[in-house]
């Protein structure tokens, strides 16, 4: 039985900051961001958008009422959770109106979480072939003003429906994971922004790629010649390009090298305009490839490299299934251009705003008309979410 991704949805926040403007404000050469990091824009989320609203919006864009009756699990991968106890998946389950006898929970290992979630979903479907599992990767990446990571921030969510007989991609059962107990990037409970050993983190990313790929080749006896594309976790696209270059050894044919390079360029198009969305970043790369490379055909294999700081890495592959192109969109780049641009001062106000609670632990928010779902208030420490049309 084939198991894999039947539908993929994406949502990002409503505001956008041009990195050209950020470079001017921070007095750095714009080419450092556009060529040094390969980034153009980053999505900015206001207080009324969080991992719950983004995750619910991405999910709502793909789910039918019938799907909502068939979903047996909602797994939310995130590292920007809004509560230490209650899973964001429970809020999303409620907002979407998924049937009650479902299991909903959150999963965490930095940017790697969604890969573990997909594998858990696969295992569930393997033993319950009629089940559907909703896997959501939702994050808001904040590094802080004037940090080296600032241009790599972002906000967004991917929603993937895992089923048997999937209509987009099937898993090939060939995953190799690696765990290393390192401190390259972490966020203690008392801090709203992460601590980052930036250069060390890039070395770890590239070294876990090299060693996980070597172990994958050893276990499965596969060459890159078998793949049409490699998608990478994209903290910023330039690092993934360095990763690709490490894999493009001289044993590969010239034709394969140019195919993998061209397809890599298609896989970074969305991230270049959204920034790092942590758990969803690899899957945003996958979506970007599928929606911007019309020459892909059913049967082709795509390799994926997942990396989460701390660190866990995984190399695995998926195969495109017949008719996959019918379940994708071709207007997403234009849609990204409808986000509202903000100037640097507005970005600083919006992105780093914190809810000011009164003595009862309450705050009421406004200005969420452009959202599908919104955090509308905090009432005595309870987060209150609504579908925006419910508010009229
Ligand atoms: P930086 O200050 O941008 O570093 O910080 P840089 O000075 O090395 O410059 C970057 C590149 O721009 C270099 O290219 C420069 O040469 C180039 P490279 O040598 O690497 O090819 N450059 C220019 N290019 C054109 N014109 C110019 C110019 N000037 C310089 N004028 C750093 C980079 C990664 C440290 C920073 O962005 C950072 O701290 N980021 C956050 C951490 C991160 O993203 N790490 C990646 C691996 S860890 C990971 O992927 C996990 C993560 O997603 C979190 C999770 O798992 O939860 C982060």
TrEMBL record:
Gene Ontology biological process terms from the UniProt entry: acetyl-CoA metabolic process
Signal peptide bounds: none
Transmembrane domains' residue ranges: none
Hydroxymethylglutaryl-coenzyme A synthase N-terminal domain boundaries: 13-164
Gene Ontology molecular functions: hydroxymethylglutaryl-CoA synthase activity
Pfam families per the UniProt record, alphabetical: HMG_CoA_synt_C, HMG_CoA_synt_N
InterPro entries per the UniProt record, alphabetical: HMG_CoA_synt_C_dom, HMG_CoA_synth_N, HMG_CoA_synthase_prok, Thiolase-like
SUPFAM superfamilies: Thiolase-like
Domain of life: Bacteria
Enzyme active site: 79 (proton donor/acceptor), 111 (acyl-thioester intermediate), 233 (proton donor/acceptor)
UniProt keyword terms in alphabetical order: Transferase
Homology family: Belongs to the thiolase-like superfamily. HMG-CoA synthase family.
The protein's name: Hydroxymethylglutaryl-CoA synthase
Species, as recorded: Streptococcus himalayensis
């Amino acid at each position: 039985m084939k198991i894999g991704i039947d539908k993929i949805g994406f949502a990002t926040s409503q505001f956008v900051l041009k990195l050209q403007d950020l470079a001017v404000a921070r007095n750095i050469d714009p080419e450092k961001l556009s060529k040094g990091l390969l980034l153009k824009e980053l999505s900015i989320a206001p207080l009324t958008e969080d991992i719950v609203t983004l995750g619910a919006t991405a999910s709502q864009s793909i789910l039918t009422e019938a799907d909502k009756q068939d979903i047996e699990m909602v797994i939310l991968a995130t590292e920007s959770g809004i509560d230490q106890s209650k899973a964001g998946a429970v809020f999303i389950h409620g907002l979407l109106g998924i049937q009650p006898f479902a299991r909903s929970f959150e999963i965490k290992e930095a940017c790697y979480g969604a890969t573990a979630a997909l594998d858990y979903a696969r295992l569930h479907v393997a033993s319950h072939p009629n089940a559907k599992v909703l896997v959501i990767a939702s994050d808001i990446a904040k590094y802080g003003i004037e940090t080296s990571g600032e241009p790599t921030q972002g906000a967004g969510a991917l929603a993937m429906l895992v089923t048997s007989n999937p209509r987009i991609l099937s898993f090939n059962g060939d995953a190799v994971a690696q765990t290393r107990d390192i401190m390259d990037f972490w966020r203690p409970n008392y801090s709203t922004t992460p601590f980052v050993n930036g250069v060390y983190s890039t070395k770890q990313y590239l070294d876990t790629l090299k060693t996980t790929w070597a172990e994958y080749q050893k276990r499965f006896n596969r060459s890159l010649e078998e793949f049409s594309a490699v998608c990478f976790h994209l903290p910023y696209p330039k690092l993934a390009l360095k990763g690709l270059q490490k894999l493009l050894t001289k044993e590969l044919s010239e034709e394969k090298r140019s195919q993998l390079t061209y397809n890599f360029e298609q896989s970074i198009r969305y991230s270049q305009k959204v920034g790092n969305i942590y758990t969803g970043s690899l899957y945003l790369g996958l979506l970007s490839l599928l929606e911007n490379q019309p020459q892909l055909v059913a049967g082709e294999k795509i390799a994926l490299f997942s990396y989460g700081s701390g660190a866990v890495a995984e190399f695995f592959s998926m195969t495109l299934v017949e008719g996959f192109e019918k379940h994708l969109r071709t207007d997403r780049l234009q849609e990204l251009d409808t986000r509202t641009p903000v100037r640097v001062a507005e970005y600083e106000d919006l992105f780093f705003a914190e809810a000011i609670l009164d003595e009862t632990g309450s705050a009421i928010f406004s200005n969420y008309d452009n959202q599908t779902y919104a955090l509308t208030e905090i009432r005595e420490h309870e987060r209150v979410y609504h579908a925006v049309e419910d508010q009229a």
